[in-house]
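Example (one chain per record):
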Amino acid sequence: MFCSLEILTLKLSNIKLCKSVTFKSKLMKKIIKTDKAPAPIGPYNQAILSGNTLYTSGQIAINPTTGELALENISTETKQVMENLKAVLAAAEMTFENVVKTSIFISDMHNFSAINAVYATYFDEETAPARETVEVANLPKFVNVEISMIAIK
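Predicted structure:
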């Protein structure tokens, strides 16, 4: 994309100086893919690395080996989600220590404690990322939990 930027007209005595600058702006992004996490089920990628910042797509409890949902109980489901995120982070040469923000979407707030107990095993409480947890009406494939992350190298 090309942009034109007009620099203000300068008045020095009675002389006007005008300068126009053209620059090229290119969005630098790298697509992050791994077969150790589920392939996207729509028109999106597992993660995008832009500069030093990684934006993961929301992960649900799909076992990447079998393609099946791990829905035995909410703890098992949450563990699979976190393992999928771990694989995506690793594909970008990062770990949970790089995570600065998480978004957790759950279908039933009554599951919060069980989800939080599994989630807590992946982070050091002292350096845990910022986070929100939101109850929603439905999630893809009608799972109970979906988590996305932002991480910085």
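Caption: DSSP finds two helices and eight strands in the chain.
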